[in-house]
Fold:
Amino acid sequence: MTQAEYEAEVERRQRVVDEAGLSRCEWLAARKTVSAQPGAGALMRLANEVKAHSATCPTCKARNEYARANFGPMPARPRPPEAPRGFALPAWSRPPVFGATAIGAIVALRVIGASLGPRGMPIGIGLAAIGFGMACGAAGGLVLSATRPALRKLGALGDYLSGVVAMGGYIGAALLMLSALGSKPVIKNGSDAVIFAVIIVGFGLLGAHSWRRKNRTPS
Ligand SMILES: [Zn+2]
Structure:
């Protein structure tokens, strides 16, 4: 039964009860106009108030009893339609999509800045840089998605490890792609490796810390 069919059924019953000479409830009429605000929460509140009221109001009780005697019990009220969800990605795909979008946007801003600068930047290089950034962001997000179920169980420690792991995926993807593209090795010796490790751990912990501050779960 749709919402419209349900309302038509209510109307039909009300008309028959009116025709039988039972008066309408003034409280109910006033309540319905006051509470005609959108939102499932307001609808639920109204439904509960009406239910509580009609259990005690003699006018409503008389009308409901007459309707039930003539039509039987009311069919179940249809569930209010859920708000449209514009964009429902499966949970695992959100971090890579977010990573690609965020890093792509950051690189795009720099590309725009560079192409407006005195020396200009060829559009092909700019687009390649944006694609490169998006791929790195997606890689970091994928690594996060893949390891998150296990790390989530570790609580706060797992949150910080997730930050480090995602940052490692992001920077690792960048290094791998650079070497695949034939660039000179970025990490040439042990001290380069230490620098990269410090960057990954430092920014990973920092990212996890700010994420935890924003998503603090009540404990
Ligand atoms: Zn009433």
In short: Residues 50 and 56 are 10 Å apart (CA to CA).
